[in-house]
Design goal:
Radius of gyration: 13 Å
Bound molecules: zinc ion
Number of strands: 5
Oligomer: single chain
Number of helices: 0
Helix content: under 10%
Structural class: mainly beta
Length: 56
């Protein structure tokens, strides 16, 4: 649970690590009248590293 909030590159934690939409990948759900739902990825505000947590 807590592991995904730790940057694998520099070890920074919340609140430096943020969860953002991964718009470089196709949305999980698209439908008329619904906003697309994207995969999530983690972004480190300290070093700029981005990674995808295993649970997704
Ligand atoms: Zn980092």
């Amino acid at each position: 649970m807590s592991e995904k909030w730790v940057c694998p590159a520099c070890g920074a934690k919340k609140p430096m690590v943020k969860e953002i939409d991964d718009k470089s990948r196709p949305p999980i759900i698209t439908g008329s009248g619904m906003r697309p739902m994207y995969h999530k990825k983690m972004q480190c505000g300290n070093c700029g590293h981005e990674w995808v947590p295993e649970e997704f």
